[in-house]
Amino acid sequence: MENTHEPIIERPIFEKVQELLKRDTRTAPQKKKLYLFSGFLRCADCGKAMSRSQVKGTVYYFCRTYKDQSKTACTKHSIKHNRLEAAVLYAIQQQVYLAVHYANTLEYISTAPLQKSQSIRIEALIEAKEKERSKIMRYKQSIYQDWKDGEITHSDYRHMSEDYERQIAALGEVLKNLHAEREELQNGITAESPCLVVFKKFETIDKLTREVLIELVDHIKVHENGNISVKFKVADQLRRVMEYIEINTQSEAV
Q: 55: which DSSP letter?
């Protein structure tokens, strides 16, 4: 059972260790250490892990499907280690810069004489989805009467009713998420938001380490043209911060 005694180690440290254990599941053959990107790289097309290879002193990564299955199952997606490391470091530095900028903007918003703003986009979406759900519920009620009046068969009624139920359930889930997002926006976001703090502590980063990757990165996709895309762990939270800032700065302009 959780929270029944004082912890021996702090939860953030515990969670970081658990993340390391999940990532550090394998080492290279006959090697005792993990490489920098072990457990992070994926092929952008097939989704499989990337393999590491060294040719004449130069380290490359390429798609495991291409290597282990067949040359037609996927393409090579080759990228040099040095180029990959520089690109990932740059992506992290840019995200750190944005996090610091967001934090400064939030500090300004918190001291400006503005009332908390409503998200017009979310309000409009909620209204539209609620109307859509009400309309489908009316349709569902009307087909029952059509069946009772003999205008449709029981089989048609059952299939149509099930389809309406699925639509109503899907809309209910959408509305639940929209209401949660509206509540978060209304309550405000501060410069001490965890998704900003985690980046701000790497404000002077000039070297990529596994600790940094474990802390910030979910995975890295390598594309066939040599480009990469970095998926950060707090991408959704950062998107909400950006939207909150946009709403409040727009309100000030008005």
A: E
Residue 47's Cα: distance from chain center in Å?
A: 16
Query: Does the global pTM surpass 0.85?
Result: no
**Does the CA dihedral 63-67-68-70 come out positive or negative?**
positive
List C-alpha distances in Å: 11 to 2, 3, 122, 138.
11, 11, 34, 49
Q: Any residues with CB less than 8 A from the CB of 126 and at least 6 apart, and which? A: 175, 178, 179, 182
Q: Indicate the Cα dihedral angle 152, 153, 154, 156, nearest 10°.
A: -70
What is the three-class DSSP state of 202?
coil
- Give the tens place of pLDDT for each residue, 157-184: 999 999 999 999 999 999 998 888 777 6
The tokens 């979406």 sit on which residue? 125
Range list of H helices, the chain: 11-23, 64-68, 81-111, 120-148, 154-187, 194-200, 210-216, 235-253
* Residue found by looking up tokens 């790289």 in the block: 41
Contact by Cβ (8 Å): 61, 79: yes
